[in-house]
Design brief:
Length: about 200
């Protein structure tokens, strides 16, 4: 399987990285392309990437508190082999196994897990973070510029963030993942992925 953006990874690590991504995706019952795309969107697949404002670090931009919760630190993640860092990506996503039915859900886990399964009209907010604060912190996602971000806006942002040439691969598996968990759904996901991959050959 040729994964999206795999050429971004250092040549001598590409096979090990790809094999690990596929293994993690199989465990999570999601498309490996979804993992690759979310890591590309967050860090350009740079395991040492650091956000200077928040100190978020690594492939999926682990926040310092998140890193500590995974029994590591952003300092350790920054110097970690990217293949080894994938273990922490796995640990982060594992609690959401069975809940990720589309790439939107996978991105939600990284961006704002509470929005998984919410209707398009739902506004992103928590008991500690108001809708206005979240919108101010994420102006590119607040497409309507109305001081609140809805699930619909989030989905539009995510869709726009995927290269047009890759959208069939990333979003083509959504229908496959939606009906039910288990063998049939997994088989259909693989079918969609195979079609997408073959179209690139």
């Amino acid at each position: 399987m040729s994964l999206l953006r795999i050429s971004t990874i250092r040549a001598d690590l590409q096979k090990a990285f790809a094999d690990r991504v596929v293994a993690i995706a199989n465990e999570l019952v999601i498309s490996p392309h979804w993992l690759m795309q979310v890591m590309w969107s967050e860090s350009r697949l740079n395991a040492a990437a650091v956000n200077p404002k928040t100190n978020a670090t690594g492939l999926i931009q682990f926040m310092p508190d998140t890193a500590r919760g995974l029994k590591t630190s952003v300092e350790a993640l920054k110097v970690m082999n990217p293949v080894d860092q994938l273990e922490y990506v796995r640990r982060y996503f594992l609690p959401y196994k069975g809940k990720m039915k589309s790439y939107y859900d996978v991105y939600s886990v990284v961006f704002f897990p509470a929005l998984i399964g919410k209707p398009d009209t739902w506004v992103l907010q928590t008991s500690k973070l108001s809708a206005a604060v979240i919108a101010k912190q994420n102006p590119v996602v607040n497409i309507n510029k109305d001081a609140q971000i809805t699930v619909k806006e989030f989905k539009q942002y995510v869709f726009n963030s995927v290269l047009a040439a890759h959208r069939d691969i990333v979003f083509g598996a959504i229908k496959a993942a939606a009906p039910a968990a288990g063998g049939i759904a997994a088989a259909v996901v693989l079918f969609f992925c195979s079609l997408a991959i073959n179209s690139l050959i």
